[in-house]
Amino acid sequence: MSEATLEHGAGELPPRRNVKLVVAYNGAAYHGWQRQVGGVDTIQQRLEEALVRVVRHPVIVLGAGRTDAGVHAAGQVANFYTTNLAIPLAGLVAATNSRLPRDIVIRSAEGVPESFHAARSAVGKTYRYRIYVAPVRPVELHRLVYHYWRPLDAERMSQAAAALVGEHDFRGFASSADQRDNTVRRIDTCQVAEAGGEIHVTIRGDGFLYQMVRNIVGTLIEIGRGHWPVERIDKVFASGNRSDAGPTAPPDGLTLLCVHYE
Amino acid sequence: MSEATLEHGAGELPPRRNVKLVVAYNGAAYHGWQRQVGGVDTIQQRLEEALVRVVRHPVIVLGAGRTDAGVHAAGQVANFYTTNLAIPLAGLVAATNSRLPRDIVIRSAEGVPESFHAARSAVGKTYRYRIYVAPVRPVELHRLVYHYWRPLDAERMSQAAAALVGEHDFRGFASSADQRDNTVRRIDTCQVAEAGGEIHVTIRGDGFLYQMVRNIVGTLIEIGRGHWPVERIDKVFASGNRSDAGPTAPPDGLTLLCVHYE
Questions:
Q1: Is there a single domain that holds both residue A106 and residue A142?
Q2: Rounded to the nearest 5°, which phi and psi values hold at A95?
Q3: Which has the least CB within 10 A, A111, B2, B82, B103?
Q4: Tens of pLDDT, residue by residue, chain B (262 residues)
């Protein structure tokens, strides 16, 4: 009988812990959250590479949401399992941050039950979209906001946003690349606020279809510039037709603010 | 006698106008203002390339200040001469901006006397340096601020800043790469202000030696963190020794706010 068998009974796994991370990043330089084949630079890959160097074993980081290329996060949540129980979590955060690029940072880490899964345990997410409204583009906010040079009526956008709240079939607001069968989602809040030359759309829901937030913002912009009536939202719900909604707003203005759990 | 000689007297130049531009840019992606040999990406080169496509003749853009790699501008000033008198200046701005990368923008253009020279006519410049003070780095402000994780005493920095005002020999605050003989400059104002988790150093003077603003900020930070007394400024003036001043603060936090003319 080998020593290993003496230490762990047959089939028994070594002890491990499940670690929940809150991660912020500037997505401008990355091809989105999700690891991809072919050497494309992604947030997940950078996090896994940094964590491997700290915990000294292979790591898979599971994210709550797969943000697209150019999309930012203030509070993305991810979890990973580690058999390295020697490192205190505060030390793990500091050591990993020192190995991450400066545009990615772990804000916090905590031990969570074995069953916690960043994506499946999530009960909601909040996104914010920043529209910078001015004739001259704001170079200091390059790739952090969507620059819109025509005036927008925030009051009309706010009225339209209210029509999004509740449980609806968001098929018409989903990218045609979204293959999910169930396109019913619940939007808890959708607020349009003016903030120093910008319009911020903040939206919280139990889940979002592919490019749903950016398609909602694109539709609100068409309403805000007066091209469509406020009632356009109802038309998109009624038809379920992507072509009735507005263009997909660019990724630059979008930030995953936080992920909600029970 | 050729037609050309009939149109313009011998040695007479075709009519031209001198155009003053106010330019803003996010310097993160560029190797500074000044055009360089070897295909390096610079602001001046991008501006010249865009203007050539609008005015349809070779253009040299003269900048008021040669900002370093990674340094930003809200109000850089430049001028260029054009023999194309057909395009209204508002149209020239719009056409050039549509041909510029999104992180460079011409804010305004105006016709100025033949003798106006963006650098030689300038009587002063104002720079602002942003220091973000917090334990966690601000990824959304990546390359827009200098992240400093230790606490800084803004009051001490403000007292030291006051000692910089006036006419002094700034030799000790200049990069050793600066070869100018006259190192006397006049600082009109140097203010340290706290602004929502950041410390902003705003400095106006009649001229700045190479890396002088960043060396001043590096010195103020050493004073702000308590490593040096407020009187350190006087010591640097007295010795004129670069090694008595603080380290060169990184370019990310620095913005050329405006250039002053009579």
A1: no
A2: -65, -40
A3: B2
A4: 444 444 445 567 789 999 999 999 999 999 999 999 888 999 999 999 999 999 999 999 999 999 999 999 999 999 999 999 999 999 999 999 999 999 999 999 999 999 999 999 999 999 999 999 999 999 999 999 999 999 999 999 999 999 999 999 999 999 877 777 899 999 999 999 999 899 999 999 999 999 999 999 999 999 999 999 999 999 999 999 999 999 999 999 999 999 999 9
A68 is catalytic: yes
- Which of A142, A144, A145, A147 best probes binding to B when mutated, by most B CB atoms within 10 angstroms? A142
User: Residue B253: what are its φ and ψ, rounded to 5°?
Assistant: -80, -5
Q: Do B72 and A24 make contact, defined as CB atoms within 8 angstroms?
A: no
Same domain as A237, residue A155: yes
Q: What is the ipTM of this complex?
A: 0.86
A105 touches chain B (CB under 8 A): yes
Q: State whether B9 and B104 are in the same domain.
A: yes
Tell me whether residues A26 and B142 touch, CB distance under 8 A.
Answer: yes
Residues B189 and B232 reside in one and the same domain? yes
Q: Give residue B201's domain range.
A: 123-261
* pTM (predicted TM-score): 0.90
Contacts of B140 in chain A (CB under 8 A): 24, 26, 72, 74, 144, 255
β pairing state of B254-260 and B72-82: parallel
